[in-house]
Structure formats: structure tokens, C-alpha cells
Amino acid sequence: MTINTTVDKGTVTIALAGRLDAVTAPELMACLEDSLGSATGLRIDCSALEYISSAGLRVLMKARSAMATKGPLTITGVNDMIREVFDITGFADVFTLE
Description:
Layout: E1 2-8, E2 11-20, H1 25-35, E3 41-52, H2 54-67, E4 73-76, H3 80-89, E5 96-97
Parallel strand pairs: 2-3, 3-4, 4-5
Antiparallel strand pairs: 1-2
């Protein structure tokens, strides 16, 4: 998986490419821990994400908790396959998907 991080006016954007699974989830968790210190918003760009497992969903829930008092968390670029995972697991009701 490839992770690219940018910051614009306090909003951290993390663009994911490849597979977010048990092998790569710790890498995303480390990136979030490094990036969210003074963040006022978080955008996770999934436009190049090919697959997400329960381990990846768990990291997104941790990010949601970390952002609870800081600002909004938005997940963008969700393709049909990733959206289906969010729908089946009920995460589509928990996250703002664009």
C-alpha cells in the first residue's frame, strides 16, 4: 500500500493506494499517529484503494475516535467495491462517505 499525506489549513488528507489489510493497517495507524497532532479535519482519499479488510476498518474507527474532538473525518473517492464493504459492515452509517 502507498500512503501520501498532505496538510491544507489544518485538514490532513491521507491518500491510500493498494490494499488496506492486516499487513498494511499498522502502517496507516502509524501515519495517523504522526499526522493528527494539530489536525482540525481529516480526509481519507480511497480513490486508489483496491481492498479493505476488517483490520483496515478498525484503523478507520481509531481515526474516528482520535478526531472526535478535533474536527470532521470524511472518506472520499469510495469505489463500488469499498462502498459495499462499508454498507455490509454498517460503517456507511458511521462515516461520511463522498
